[in-house]
Specification:
By secondary structure, this protein is α+β, with helices and mostly antiparallel strands. It has one domain: Alpha-Beta Plaits, CATH 3.30.70. The chain is built from 2 helices and 4 strands; from the N terminus they run βαββαβ. Strands 2-3-1-4 form a 4-stranded antiparallel sheet. Helix 1 runs antiparallel to helix 2. It is globular and about 35 Å long.
């Protein structure tokens, strides 16, 4: 079984259409934390899949996507995020079957 790592993914996208596509893509991979910031729990294969999807959307000479590896999801990553002002609360994710 592949271990899950916590990643903070942040992006700076120059075009509004690409920005929307990146945002929608990231919603499928993690929790929306702030404007262009997501917290993602991914195994190695999921990381590669997410990066591949984003690679196909962004314009490489104008845009930037950063992946920050915070550590194992069941280790330090649980307590790695703190906040000033409104508290950070991790969103509960539930599968919806239609």
């Amino acid at each position: 079984m592949s271990t899950r790592q916590c990643y903070i993914v942040t992006y700076d996208i120059c075009d509004p259409k690409r920005l929307r596509r990146v945002f929608e893509t990231m919603r499928g991979w993690g929790d929306h934390v702030q404007l262009s910031v997501f917290r993602c729990s991914l195994n190695r294969m999921e990381l590669v899949q997410a990066q591949t999807e984003l690679r196909e959307i962004i314009k490489h000479d104008e845009d930037q996507v950063l992946f920050v590896d915070v550590g194992p999801e069941d280790g330090r990553a649980r307590e790695a995020m703190s906040s000033l002002g409104r508290p950070y609360t991790r969103a509960e994710r539930h599968a919806i079957i239609v």
